[in-house]
Amino acid sequence: MKRPMMIYVLVLGGLLGRADTRQKAAAIFEQVKAKQGLCLHIGSKDELTAHLAAHGDFLVHGLSFSDADATRARAGVTRMGLNGQVSVALTRAGALPYVPNLANVIVVEDPLILKRFGVDELMYILAPGGELVAWDGERWQLSTKPWPKTMDDWTHPQHGPDGNMVSTDRELHFPLGIRWIGGLPKNINRWASVRGWVLANGRCFAVTGNEAANLSRGKEKQHYLIARDAFNGLPLWKANLETSDDGAALFYQNAAPLVADDHQAYAVQRAQPVAFDASTGAVNHRFDTQYQPARLLLLNNTLVAACWAGRDSTKASFERKSLWTTWVNSTDKGTVEAFDASTGKQKWQQELAAHKILAAGNTVYVATRVGNPASENDIIALDLETGKERWRVAHTELGETMDLEINLAATDFVSVLRRQSRGITFLRASDGEMLWEIPGRAIEAKQKETPYLWTSLVNGELWYGNRKYDPLSGEVKGMLPMGLPTQGCTPSILVGNILTRSRRCEYTEFPLSADPLEKAKTIKFEAARGGCMEGMVPANGMFYTSQNNCQCAPGQVLGFLGFGPDTRLPTAGDWTAKRPHWGLGPPSGTPVSAGGWTTYRGNSSRSRSTVEAAPSGLKKHWVFKPRAIKSGYRKDWDARLAPALTQPIVSGEHVVVGEQDSGRLLAVDTRTGKLAWEYALPSRMDSSPTIDQGLVLAGCHDGWLYALALSSGDLVWRTRIAPLDQYIVANGRVESSWPVAGSPLIVHDRIYAVAGRSTEADGGLAVVELSRVGGLFNWGTSIEPGPRRRLDLLYEESGKIFVNNTRIDPVSKKAVTDPKALKARPAAGSAILDAYLGLHKMRGFSQDLDAWTAELFVRANQASLSAGEPGASLPKSGPLRNPRWRINLERGSLINALAITPGHVLVAAMTGDGSGRVLLIEKGKGQQVARIDLAVMPVYDGLSVSGGRVFVACENGELVCLGKGE
After folding, report:
1. 274 pLDDT higher than 70
2. Which residues pair with 143 in a beta bridge?
3. pLDDT at residue 317 greater than cutoff 90
4. Cα–Cα distances in angstroms (integers) from residue 418 to residues 352, 427, 441, 447, 712, in the given order
5. What does the pLDDT read at residue 13?
């Protein structure tokens, strides 16, 4: 039963159309049931867009159709201090530029816009259960989008209480595109920080240790239950479960005890099951169990828990070891308990040490395992309502070894796996009598790890291996075009005619026809690798997967991800087509300053070096602190772990720094530390702008490159770099499917910019060349799936242009992927953004910081700084061998910014107590010349040098200017 649906119900009177914007927003949300999520304002033109965020807890995205409307709406957002939580995009596209099923609320106040797009197109981008509020010229009307009957939920870690990992969702198909991104970029606790996730009634619930609060904890990361909107990934609530583990034990049956229905999510908190309100996270009731639950299932409003007196890794020789160990009850004590899910009242309790429980019909099937290694191993059927035992099959009836496991339950049978002999027995549900079996085979004594065999019930047929069986008789009903895989740490799942094999980033489409000559089709989708414990989970017409640490998929987009079909993928013509452009021409009288630190890492090669001299001392001249930005989504922003500010860029009298998540560009007077101007980009930025010929060139995650006058902050021109206008949600902001990397590259008389998330996502990366004067489009190309690399900054190497290991040829206008083209020096542009956008804060991260000139190469590795001769003989990573000089900072320090000047090396570091420090070092001998302590740590790469001053961006949002004392 989904949330109630209404279509076109009159809700507001005609006088409201003339009310002021604040009253209008309040009146709209008096009628809207949603209190949080994504609100789209189609036809944004004034302060109403900002006021929509004041009611409930909404991320608001306005869409304007004229420059004047967008300017007025953005001014209102800035006045109310809501940049980031509220943003306004400008489009002239013929269709609404959003992926389908994205928004929780859509507001349309212009009848002409309603007529232009029509209700059907608005409903297309509205999530199921979402609400459309539209003014038709006479009255406001409310419409609720119905839930498609072809969508399926995924309420248990293995789909349902029956353990049948087969989805009935019929909305999924290829190709896929990103719908949303949330959470930390990667695991912070080995391989399985996320222990399980389920989906019900448009919500995604995950038991996870991937929280910023856990970054400083040891191996045992605290688990949280995180609730997100399943269609846009926006956070709804979270609860501390007060449980933990070390992120290992990857076998998929070790998924966290977690289930959900339309109204509640059930997880274990402080050793007891708890029912959380699905919409608010409030605790509805607790279930009083004798021991801590290891398994939960939910059927017919009955919550069943298998509880253990203790937990240990298996000692059975036939089960997986090490990272893939199976967790078992370490004692002979345990219970199976059932409760009314609505009230928390216990229905029954059985003293059983249950290793696994499944349920179908009105029967709970229990596989007992007493002791470790097991001394008793039975299969038992219990009545769901009363808990009375219906029948029991001892392991001796099926074989000599205590290796019995249940892996599929149905109303008329249950399948029992014999783990060691790899046989499967099918028992009748009513009395436990054997129906038929698939004989096992003996395994060699040295073979200690046996994958879990997978049986699935698909449209009444039992699928196993490469055959289809009648589940009651064992009669072979047909053949599969390929054999089903065994299950392990990243299980496979069947959805429609798709078989997921997401550990390898692969999917198999089975032929829809019965033609025996038609072959299965393998599809690679390397933008996401299935997360440990559950792989790639289908629900709501989408796939969902958690973070992982596997380096076998270097093109994967980082974070907890939602993918779906019907996103627009660029055609070959879209990559090369002339991009939309708006411009006023060059600003008159704009001074062009020579020198400065004008781009990320100082120059086009990203070498962290400059020809400008450093000051002879380090004294604090001024500190600039931006005004605060209000946002209910700051925690989602912070989950990116990106620096609070970009690296400062400097030219003449202006130092420009960007607030990454709010999207504000701030220009500060280098002499006084006073704000000169600010400009709010329509989405976030990911790195510093580039200053060129009196312009600030800023790549934005809305897919556009913006040119502002350095002297005033006025917009001079903008050009879209993304191949198409299309928006998704990423970490609490609306972004383009192809965000522009922040720092464009200037080479001779051309500007180069790159947009996208990965070569493997949404068709690839876009590379565009613009004229240096006016930002006019010259040509565009693509880096399509194959290189398997995420978006990164462009850099120049020996006159050639690169992004990661791909060379961009301006003559042929092609992208040439050639691993051999990477320069020999290990400070190559590869992984610039990976380091900058938070991965330096991740578990075990120890990426080197390199800076170089033609005469000197400097490397920072953790708290060590060493200098040597540049050249191909330098180690790819780690401290330099036989350096010219070496400096070791105090224990616990972490160097996170470098700069080389003609006479000095500047170092910014975090100290052991979380504060900061800047060192001035004589370049020739490595002697310290000056030092200054800061109250907070500098951001990664947050140091710049220009005009005899040092500018440091800090993690608390402050910009500090240092120089020689007066």
Report:
1. yes
2. 132
3. no
4. 20, 13, 10, 15, 74
5. 43
Q: Measured between alpha carbons, how far is 433 from 390 in angstroms, rounded to an integer?
A: 12
Assign 729 to helix, strand or coil.
strand
User: What are the residues whose beta carbons fall under 8 Å from the beta carbon of 586, sequence distance 6 or more?
Assistant: 693, 694, 695, 716, 773, 774
**Cα–Cα distance, 599 to 745 (Å, whole number):** 8
How many CB atoms sit inside 10 A of residue 171's CB?
A: 20
Q: How far apart are CA 130 and CA 107, in angstroms?
A: 11
**How far is the CA of 733 from the CAs of 140, 188, 465, in angstroms?**
28, 23, 44
| Predicted confidence (pLDDT) at residue 720 exceeds the cutoff of 60 | yes
Q: What's the confidence (pLDDT) of residue 620? A: 96
Of the chain, the end-to-end C-alpha distance in Å amounts to 73
Which pLDDT band holds residue 449 (cuts at 50, 70, 90)? Answer: very low
Rounded to an integer, the average pLDDT of 54-69 is 91
CA distance 770 to 780: 9
Residues 606/793, Cβ–Cβ less than 8 Å = yes
Strands 715-720 and 727-730: unpaired
What are the counts of helices (DSSP H) followed by strands (DSSP E) for the chain?
Answer: 7, 73
**What pTM, to 2 d.p., does this model score?**
0.95
Distance CA 453, CA 475 (A): 19
- Cβ(826)–Cβ(867) below 8 Å: no
Query: Could you tell me the pLDDT band of residue 6, with boundaries at 50, 70 and 90?
Result: very low
**Residue found under tokens 């780690």:** 878
Residue 824 reports pLDDT greater than 60? no
Q: What is the mean pLDDT of residues 550-562?
A: 89
- What is residue 819's predicted lDDT score, i.e. its pLDDT? 60
Six token digits for residue 801? 């242009």
Distances in Å between the Cα of 393 and the Cα atoms of 119, 295, 943 are 59, 21, 70
Q: Which residues pair with 545 in a beta bridge?
A: 561
Query: Cα(691)–Cα(83) distance, rounded to whole angstroms?
Result: 23
Strands 581-583 and 715-720: antiparallel
Question: In this predicted structure, what is the pLDDT of residue 64?
Answer: 96
Task: Assess whether pLDDT exceeds 50 at residue 14.
Answer: no
Check: CB of residue 212 under 8 Å from CB of residue 226: no
How far apart are the C-alpha atoms of 542 and 563, rounded to whole Å?
Answer: 5
Mention every residue, 6+ apart, whose C-beta is less than 8 A from residue 666.
624, 626, 656, 657, 658, 659, 675, 678, 959
Burial 756-774 (b: 16+ CB within 10 A, else e): bbbbbbbbbbbbbbbebeb
The percent helix, strand, coil of the chain (3-state, each to 5) is 10, 40, 50
- Over residues 728-740, mean pLDDT: 97
d(CA 184, CA 169): 28
The tokens for 696 are: 């600030």
Q: Average model confidence (pLDDT) for the chain?
A: 90
Among the residue ranges 8-22, 166-180, 713-727, the one predicted with the least confidence is: 8-22
Secondary structure of residue 764 in the 3-state scheme: coil
Residue written as tokens 């690839």?
764
Query: Rounded distance, CA 468 to CA 480, Å?
Result: 7
Q: What angle do CA 922, 924, 927 make, to 5 degrees?
A: 40
Residue 656 CA to residue 670 CA, distance in Å, equals 9
Q: What is the pLDDT of residue 843?
A: 36
3-state secondary structure at position 432: coil
Paired residues of 349 in beta bridges: 337
Cβ–Cβ < 8 Å for 754, 789: no
Strand partners, 283: 276
Q: Which of 55-59, 69-73, 401-405 has the highest mean pLDDT?
A: 69-73
| Structure letter (DSSP) for residue 486 | P
Nearest alpha carbon to residue 394 among 380, 412, 383: 380
Helix (H, G, I), strand (E, B) or coil at 52: helix
The backbone torsions φ and ψ at residue 57, rounded to the nearest 5 degrees and listed phi first, read -135, 70
